[in-house]
Design brief:
The structure is a homodimer. The first copy, chain A, is an alpha/beta fold. In chain A, the strands form two sheets. In chain A, strands 4-3-2-1-5-6-7 form a seven-stranded mixed β-sheet, with helices on both faces. The first copy, chain A, has a five-stranded antiparallel β-sheet with strand order 10-9-8-11-12. The first copy, chain A, is 40% helix and 22% strand. At the A-B interface, helix 1, helix 6, strand 12 and helix 12 of A face helix 1, helix 6, strand 12 and helix 12 of B.
Chain lengths: 340, 340
């Protein structure tokens, strides 16, 4: 199986490390063998090696911030789109940065790869939240798979669980803690930190960006909620069609007061059916401490699925991370190979 | 697909109700259609209807405690084994009572069905904890599937999650709350009930048996742990090869003392690798309240899976119940049909 990396930052490198580490395990356990035929990185350039490149060497070059143009024996392309259009890979692994307003450049990359008959797996929320139906239809038309396990809860296999493992169930509601940064901030505030100090701590640890709006205003959770609304319930809404409130108005006093009543503030993303409508929202909620979501502390994510067959089932796991998100791409690659 | 019920108590009836309720949904969504060609019940008798029986009518008869011998137009068999040996079903749904010491009569039923080339799904812990390898090998030899999602955490799809959804991961440890009755008792004790009062309450609610040993001595959790050791890690041990301690020695004082230190007693079943050995145990542990397992209250089950790719992933859901366990059989039936 010929793989093409598009986007080779934290997530792409996380997958590359996993593939190197697990090459033998994957061959022995699943008969899965692969070649990397190209890597496109915004800064380090776009490299095509038709016979398969030395992943360890390319990874080292990128980590040392050396341009891929100097990779011996490779064809250097002017940009990612040229690489996609001229490569004969079987699967494109798309892990560029998320732009939730335009979905670009990822959506153009995915369109180009599907058009060429490549399977696509992505960790990018933009194309899913904005163009899921169009891209899924294009994949069907081209007879290829379009997978995106990592867009919600990174490698914690929530989409597989919802789409396959719970087959035969009627899912009526999905709600959860979909943003680790805000859950970390709320956890520190319960310990007595002010909002500002908790945010600073999250920034120090690399959980929050210098401009933390995508997390603290709830937009990251909103993108994930929109993906679930589209993929699981067939919803047609765009992210900003749904009500969204972040955590910036929650005070330490309100948190202490809730705690006295056995409650805990959580930023809850929710999708549910109301008649034939699909509804979604993101907002802070007081969750009972005895509910599984009430016990989720720190940067962990969790999702409670309500079904007709089992009542509530909750899955708790990482929602971000180099290896964890890299692993989501591996799940999808194995699935494309009929392994699950 | 021709289905044969063997064991038609709570779980079998739970599945029958689900099949009736979801008949249209399953046909429309998965193209899955079925006939029930036989029902064997220890008390109501064994019925064979080659052209397919009226499930609603048979279910009503059993609920009204009328012998299946009076079902019009059916062939009445002298026992379940005769029925299995003379029926041409595609799948046997085995849901008789669990005997963890002998695995009988379920193991004989499963052997007979596999020998005849039927797929088998069971909710019965006995055959799995004692004869998993033999039965799995027989299924492979006969080219049929042998599935048992309901043996651990009822319909909460933990085995599918471990065996398929986490493909590509190296699982190093599985630990969790695998018995709802004891977790319910511990929850009530934390609220101030004595062990005896909490046990009485559990018996009133139907969670605990009149002789509660299988739950409170940890044997039910031990059977599940043994199944996980065999199925996930290839362990060869029988249930009583592993150390097992129940909850009968935990005092209200110890629970209160743990709580003051931010801990909570849980009956933890655990399986892990130690070099090339597979280890397992059941015993009460003080779990940190900030750990997902520390927050599981009442009769709910939960399991934390440690992997190289994701760190810890926890799944929380029902561990028992009529519909919930019935649904585990439906998961397996759909899987046999290539639907997941």
């Amino acid at each position: 199986m010929r793989l093409l990396f598009v986007g080779f930052g934290t997530v792409g490198q996380g997958l590359a490390e996993l593939l190197l580490e697990k090459e033998k395990f994957l061959a022995e356990n699943y008969g899965f063998e692969f070649k990397i035929v190209g890597i496109a990185d915004k800064i380090m350039g776009s490299l095509f090696v038709p016979e398969g490149l030395d992943l360890e060497k390319a990874l080292k070059m990128v980590k040392e911030e050396r341009s891929l143009a100097s990779y011996p024996g490779g064809e250097y392309k002017k940009d990612a789109l040229s690489l996609i259009k001229e490569t004969d890979a079987d699967v494109m692994l798309e892990a560029t940065y998320t732009d939730i307003k335009t979905g670009e450049p990822a959506t153009s990359y995915i369109r180009a790869a599907l058009e060429r008959g490549m399977h696509v797996t992505t960790t990018n929320k933009g194309p899913l939240a904005l163009y899921y139906r169009e891209l899924a239809d294009l994949a069907i038309k081209k007879g290829v798979q379009f997978l995106f396990e990592g867009t919600v809860m990174s490698g914690t296999p929530i989409l597989n669980l919802l789409r396959e493992t719970l087959a035969g169930s009627n899912i009526t509601e999905i709600k959860g803690i979909l943003n680790g940064t805000t859950n970390y901030i709320l956890t520190r505030m319960e310990e007595g930190f002010s909002y500002e100090d908790a945010l600073n701590k999250a920034q120090e640890l690399g959980y929050a960006e210098a401009v933390p709006d995508a997390d603290v205003q709830g937009w990251d959770a909103l993108a994930k909620v929109t993906i679930l609304a589209r993929v699981i319930f067939g919803g047609k809404g765009n992210p900003f069609d749904y009500p969204c409130e972040g955590i910036t108005k929650i005070t330490a006093g309100a948190i202490a007061d809730a705690k006295d009543r056995g409650k805990r503030f959580k930023l809850i993303g929710k999708v549910w059916r109301e008649g034939s409508d699909v509804k979604a929202s993101v907002n802070p909620e007081e969750v009972d401490m005895s509910h599984p979501l009430g016990g989720i502390m720190g940067a962990t994510n969790a999702m409670t699925i309500t079904t007709d067959t089992l009542g509530e089932v909750t899955i708790v796991g990482p929602g971000a991370g180099r290896t964890e998100t890299g692993y989501s791409l591996l799940i999808d690659i194995l699935k494309i190979n009929g392994i699950k």
